[in-house]
Recover the amino acids of this structure.
């Protein structure tokens, strides 16, 4: 299955929001060290930044690589 960059960014945002709610509870209960939670969130934020950069530069990247968007199927709606 293939997901758009926007869908991937939305999923990362959802996961970051979830972790922002859950990690403080886990830390308070002693089930997660704050440093570990912070590290994991920073990694996800880096993933998000990469996806956003790719989305912002998608056209230029595809042009550079000679990749064209597929044409809409004949008779199809857009």
């Amino acid at each position: 299955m293939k997901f758009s960059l926007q869908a991937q960014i939305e999923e990362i945002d959802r996961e970051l929001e979830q972790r922002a709610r859950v990690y403080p509870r886990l830390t308070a209960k002693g089930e997660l060290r704050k440093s570990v939670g912070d590290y994991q969130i920073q990694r996800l934020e880096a993933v998000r930044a990469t996806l956003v950069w790719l989305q912002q530069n998608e056209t230029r990247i595809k042009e550079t690589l000679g990749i064209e968007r597929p044409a809409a199927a004949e008779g199809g709606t857009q």
User: Anything to note?
Assistant: The first helix runs from residue 5 to 28. The radius of gyration is 18 Å. Residues 5-65 form one domain. Residues 24 and 69 are 43 Å apart (CA to CA).
